[in-house]
Amino acid sequence: MRSSSTNPENDLSHKLKWLMFFRILFTSLLLGSTIILHLGESPSPLASPLLVLYGLIAGVFLLSLFYALFLQRVKRKVLFAYIQIGIDTFVVTLIIFVTGSFASIFSFLYLVVIICSSMLIFRRGSMVMASLCSIQYGIMIDLEYYGILNPFVMEGGSVAANYVWSHVLYKIIIIMSACFAVAFLSGFLSEQLKKTKKELSALEDRIKRVEKLAYMGEMAASIAHEFKNPLASLAGSIQIIKQEVHCDSEIDKLMQIVLRETDRLSDLANNFLLFAKPPAGKIEQIKLDSALTETVKLFEKDSACSGRISILNELSSDIWIEMDPVHLSQVLWNLLLNAAEAIENRGFIKIKTYPLKHNYAGIEIADDGCGMSRELIKSIFNPFFTTKPNGTGLGLSIVHSILESYNTWLDVESEVNKGTTFTLKLKRIDPPS
Ligand code: ADP
Ligand code: MG
Questions:
Q1: What is the pLDDT of residues 185-231, one digit of tens each?
Q2: Can you tell me the distance from the alpha carbon of 224 to that of 246, in angstroms, rounded to the nearest whole number?
Q3: Three-state SS for 308?
Q4: Which numbered ligand comes closest to the C-alpha of 340?
Q5: Could you tell me if the CB of 309 is within 6 A of ligand 1?
Q6: Ligand 1 neighbour 372 (Cβ under 6 A)
Q7: 396 Cβ closer than 6 Å to some ligand 1 atom
């Protein structure tokens, strides 16, 4: 099964905390140093640009306090992240405005905000923020150019209105392109990272499962092996007693029970050994559709299926694989049996094969049975896990351990009361000439 152990909500909440921390740190350092620099130059510590900077610092601190108070309570964390970062773009515009607007050295802060946004709200978020930044910057510089807005700090002649329009337009376009380029690149990288993290966690799940199976297999295989001989002696002795001693029907019935139960136990031990130590297969080249059709034909005659279940085939005709045919039919049989057992009355099982990229073939076995919850799916590969009164809980464990020896595994998708689909991926070979 592929399941992710990292919860995206928790992940986002964690990232939001970091964002809030860095925002405070960054604001303190950046605006603090700007104030110190200007204090040296400016005659009065209460000059208007400085006042705005004090206000900005206070504002950011207040906002951070507000965010911190609400972080745990807010349910829609993604929206919360959008709002926080949206406000950040506005704060950056204000910073740029009070530090000289067109001449400000702080326009790069837009890029910092966009990179942060890509880490929290991924590609779409960073594109939204790039648009917000571009709009704000464009409007601010335009207003300055037309003399509607006067920047606070005028160093020399670097007010937008003093430049020719092409120069102003050029700068706006440069900033906007930088915003979108950074949004695209960092969005792309963060999407990649998200994907890799997901794959890694699926792989981790799988490794844990394999380790657990290996350990339990080792331990239990030796016990199962020790079971076989005493069971055989037991069954043998009862059979001899039955033949030698003439008993009344009551005792005979009891002996039948002993024989039936020893049979069951020895079946269980054999099945278990099959799972724990699958015999090394005799690899053959198999034409997938013929092999599957053969197993399906047998299965249709089995009592688990007979009459109540229709099996639909959708088999791609020219797929060849390399596998022990016994293994293939064991895998298929177990999956078909589970599918049939999941269907209460009438239903269908669909078997589909198709070629996949990179020389793989996919086999899908879908049923419209009872389905499974996410919780249940986590346990189904555990040996002896069963939800059936007479189940052994070894079917899927056997399937899993056989597939392990071919370096492949099963994917499960299931929905309660809708059905289940098991998918396996096998290495494809070229058809023998
Ligand atoms: P068993 O069939 O003996 O119970 P398995 O290892 O084959 O053992 O299956 C383990 C459990 O997985 C089953 O008891 C059942 O709850 C669940 N399961 C497996 N396949 C399906 C399916 N196709 N639909 C619903 N549940 C399934
Ligand atoms: Mg089973």
A1: 999 999 999 999 999 999 998 888 888 877 877 787 788 888 888 88
A2: 33
A3: coil
A4: 1
A5: no
A6: yes
A7: yes
CA distances from 144 to 97, 163, 184, 425 (A): 10, 11, 29, 62
Which uninterrupted H or E stretch holds 294? helix 288-301
Q: Which ligand is nearest to the CA of 417?
A: 1
Nearest CA to 59 out of 29, 95, 83 is that of: 95
Residue whose C-alpha is closest to residue 424's, from 396, 386, 394: 396
For 284-429, which CATH superfamily applies? Histidine kinase-like ATPase, C-terminal domain (3.30.565.10)
Residue 391 has pLDDT above 60, yes or no: yes
Name the pTM for this structure: 0.55
Question: Residue 401: CB within 6 Å of ligand 1?
Answer: no
Task: Give the pairing type, strands 320-323 and 284-287.
Answer: antiparallel
| pLDDT score of 214 | 76
The predicted-structure confidence for 128-175, as pLDDT tens digits, reads as follows: 999 999 999 999 999 988 888 887 755 554 677 778 888 899 999 999
CA distance 381 to 1: 9
The dihedral of CA 85, 86, 88, 89: what is its sign?
positive
